[in-house]
Amino acid sequence: MTAPVRKRRWLRVAIPFTLLIALITGTLIVHAIEQPDQDDSDYLSPVSPAGIGSALLAGELTERGVTVDRETSTAGALAAVRGEAVTLLVTTPDLADMERLGRPGAVPPGTRLVVVSPDSSALAETNWPIAQFHERWATGLMLPECADPLATAAGKVAVGKRAYGPVAPTTCYDGAVLSVTTAGATVTVVGAPDPFRNDRINENGNLTLATGLLTQTPRVIWLDVHHREAVPKVSSSPTSRPSQVPVSRPTSRATPREADTGNPEETRPPRQPAQADNQPNPLAQAFPPAVWASIALLALALLALAVAAARRLGTPVSEPLPSRVPSNETMLGHARLYQRAHARDESLDILRAAARRRLIAHLGLPAGATLADIAEAAGYEVDDVREILADFHPENDAELISAADAVQHLVREITGFEGDQP
Fold this sequence. Notes:
The protein is an alpha/beta fold.
């Protein structure tokens, strides 16, 4: 089989797979482009009326008597928290100074922190006993599946983007909303920003959940950061290790202020993110079931297409003609097909097979006679007969014609027949 034919057959298999890969890649790119960026000034901003803003939620809080103070830096937000129990809302954890927010004693006891969709890297900078378990392809609607009154009142909510653990006393929506108490403050992480967005807040129970989380105190400090804050560098000395930051270790009964006066020589390495036992496969749960079902359906369709095309990839088979056709036209039609496919070896093999049958019949040899038997019975050299009837492979049409003439000439010499057929 010649190279052009093999190339065309290979394309029949490669093109469907290439289209499938292009479709999946395009879907991933479009999905990434459509995701809102936290560095967008409208993203969950209390003063933005855009779809990804949160002006509707801020207005709803104001109507319910909650004071909303907007701060544009982590330092300003922590300074505003001092003095009273408030709720600190962190809408852009990827950009805020999470290391500073997560220090023990960073906020007074009784403060509530609500963090919107932090990823594993943001949580690793804090001292909170929370870790990200897995992330889904798109935000999904979730049921509370817990006894928390706030979650049960909200019902089905679009928070199924990221899930957190380990399981705490207040874990709802299959880990998408988790609350823990650390250093006297309550930290609540929410797996998706949808309940806080203007274009999603009125869907299902999003409004009930968002307002319920932010109306636990009469005042909300809204941290609205849209640029990456520089993390303060710790000065190192020749005797200090750069990988360790001196942090006082408070006892279980000491308050944050009392812990700061402890032994300054006590140090500990940075906290490692919490790990869950029997953690599920992140790849298996990274996408919702609909994505896996779509991929399986596309794979089955591609397999069916390959099977349907495979029947055309084999050698030509003889099929009964739908009507009688003159033999000369049939021969010419077959010849043109072989010519179009550049099937020189196959065409020459047909002539050689017919020549062998004719020579075997003329010489009175058995049906399974070999080329050596034919040469011996005809009085020819075996190498000459094998070169004409087997070994030679034409590389172009001129060589094919020359080889066909040689076959015909051999038959004429042995049989003495002067006709056109071998």
